Amino acid sequence: MANRNRKFAVKEPNAWKVPVEPNGPAASGGGGGDGVKNKPQKPAKTATLADDNGVSGSKIPVPKTTSASMIKKSQEKFNQVQRQHAETARKYATEYVSSDDEEDETTGGASDAATRAILGDVLKNYHGIDADVGKTQEYLQNLLESRNAVCLICIETVKRADKIWSCHSCYTFFHLMCIQRWANDSMSMKRINHEQQEGYYNNRGEYIPKPVLSVHWDCPKCRKEYQPQDIPRHYECFCRKEQNPAAHPWLIPHSCGELCGKNLNPECGHTCRLLCHPGPCPPCPQTISVSCRCGSSALKTIRCSQKSWGCTKKCTRKLSCGIHECVAQCHEPGKCPPCKNRSKQRCLCGAKAKEVNCHESRWQCGTVCNKPFPCRIHKCELKCHDGPCGECPLGLPRSCPCGKTETRAASCSERIGTCGDTCQKLLECGQHHCTERCHQGACGNCLVLVGKVCRCGATTKEVACHREATCESKCKKVRACGKHPCNRKCCDGQCPECDKVCGKTLPCGKHKCSSLCHQGPCYPCNQKSVVKCRCGGTSIEVQCGREKKANAPKCKLPCRIHSKCHHQNPHECHQGECPPCTQPCGQPNDTTNCEHPCGARCHAAVKVVTKDKNFKPIGPWDVAQEVVEIKTLPHPPCPVKVPVLCLGGHETADWPCSNSRPSSCGRICGRKLRCGVHQCPLVCHKVTHRASTTQDSRCEACTAGCVIPRPTGCVHPCQRACHNPPCNPCQVVIKANCYCGLTQVFYKCHEFYPPDLEGTDKGELVEALKQRRASVMSCGQKCIKNLPCGHRCSATCHPGRCPNPEQCAKKVKIACKCGHRKVEVNCNVAKATPTVDCDDQCTLLQEQKRAELEKQQEEERARQAMENQKELEEYERKFNRRKHRERKRREVQQEEGGRSWIYLLPVAIVLIAIAVYFLMLQI
């Protein structure tokens, strides 16, 4: 498309290499070189066909069975057509005139020097680096040299004098009128498409509403979205300072020639210094003095577009952990990377510690908190967390796991178990309920087998309710393009977009779209069509192809169709069927055969839609055909209100005439039964005499039991039939443990809850009940409980604590401090005086013990002295030996004889101690 209007540089007369005869008119050059500079021609090669007949100048293969006359006639016809084609091509190459020639005539034919002059003027104010402005310079140079700007909407050349609009994103040119029409038609088609869309139910039964209408229009090339208020209304220059700029031969087309002045991108506070130009602005060439990213280096003069530069220093700021320093190279303050050092950090609850990255210091160990709640009974079951645990959840009102029985426990320590009923919680499928007994924890998956339709709706099969049904059938649904099928397996209806050529018929129904297959409507048709009302008296013009969808014009003329009922139904001209008659029927009601006329809406001609009941669909796509008929419906029941007395004679109500028969009013009969206590519990029923208030033959006889309240505490019902008070005493035998728990007692209920005490005074009643119940619950035996002192209670079986524990009369022994004197006294006396005073004999015994102790100590000292003497002699015997053998032997014998008493001394001491012990026991 870019080379469509470029001139042809014809170097040879035969530009398309068409083979011609050397002696024909094409070779003579009769008109092939007019107005075209050609090189000297070379003799064209002659295509010859050598065969037995000598025919030449053709490349057609000739069968051997063909006659010579047929070959000659065919060859002449071929040469004639060949000459015509060559002449036509030569004429087209010579007389071709492009649209650029028209511009050369109006502008005087700008030369290469003029192009360079224009580029120089535009770029004269730019003092940056040449490489930065290269993109803008190349865009301008291609625009001036190629002269091939084409409007992508109408596929026509954009000339100098045309009013244009350029996209803010891709800078592509469009005719102003084309882009306005494109924007308006795009938004119009989106509104129409949105009106045609409807919500639908997906395979889960959820209603998916249609998407929200988003009215915008897109650039035809880059598809940048623009709002309705962005539709261009005026022809402006590229910098948008001047409207309707004049065409100047020495300026860029559609430019005002002033400074651009647009804010540069990225925004730096400076504006573009080039002359008004198409395409992007170059980077900012201004020089500024800035420091590096971290700000630690000295100011440096640099281009504004390159103002972000980094030094070689490393950052030394403290990281978020507050321990380590940042070691990254020069960067902006506050943008330090996370600390990658590892340190030992405790979890949120502080129970565990592990080595983690510093920026991940807040971590959870997974341990259950287990801290006690304020109730000091239960503990927190949450996993590792910080902060307080909150209140005990078991202290709030609770229910059983299935939620049917709710209660408020007396304390959080009371456990609420399962109720034993069926769970009946709604499962995740939202359709079935849990059939297990009331249980702890979550319910399982729904295992009920249900028939489900697959995503595409082609098949139905039984699967578990929590599973999704799929099939192997391929989707035959046409994609958004309306032409190509989806071919996906078990498609849910959300088919992907089509990537083939569109080829769809435009909304007008007469033309086809030649663009690629796309999403959304094709470009609308520009033709107009006439739409008339039903009677043809009023007409309007609409866009081509919208005749069926356009609403018919409103016509004020009266409708010419006769009414189908017996009323006159005047109305204006309209499309479709006439509106139904809204007048009352007014004819006699033959349904109820009453004297009231039918007051319902006219039903003499009503549209009735019926379906074939015997229809059997072949598949889910097969739908029973509906039959629409105009029928006369019967009169409805008469709704006039008439007074009617109920069956039991309780009330008179207004009922419709069609149902004016006595009926039950819904109240309880209330007639007093023969027992004199109860009333008839039946709902209003038919009776013999409606005005009577006593039991009728059709009333239900009294079958209730005794309803007289039992004495306070008695839970056994009276076994007699309904009767007048009083009831017989309750004879139910109750077994219970006695007060002491040693045996079981049996008593009758009326002995424990007597009815004869109901009328007495409250204080006297309480005292009498206590005495009676104490006599009933006591077994009469001696109490088996022990008093605080440890002795058995002496009272008879009694309730509560044992009486008078401080007056215990059991005999106990108390002794003096030395333990010699002992006295037997009562237990209550022993508590007051736990010891007795010592006498003279106690003092004498103490003196004897003291003398014996001193004697033992003296003997012990003597024994120690003898042992020491023995050891000393033994030592001298070993180290001070004498020379004479006889004397030494004699000394040894004497020593051995003198030491024999040492062995007898311990024996004597033991015997003395035994004697003293027995002597003390006798005393």
Automatic annotation (TrEMBL):
Q: Which InterPro entries does the annotation name? A: NFX1_fam, Znf_NFX1, Znf_PHD-finger
GO MF entries: DNA-binding transcription factor activity, RNA polymerase II-specific; RNA polymerase II transcription regulatory region sequence-specific DNA binding; zinc ion binding
Per UniProt, the keywords (alphabetical) are: Coiled coil, Membrane, Metal-binding, Repeat, Transmembrane, Transmembrane helix, Zinc, Zinc-finger
SMART domains per UniProt? ZnF_NFX
Region annotated Disordered, chain positions: 1-70
Task: State any GO CC term.
Answer: nucleus
Q: Which residues form the PHD-type domain?
A: 148-225
Q: Mind telling me what this protein is named? A: AGAP005362-PA-like protein
Instruction: List the source organism.
Output: Anopheles sinensis
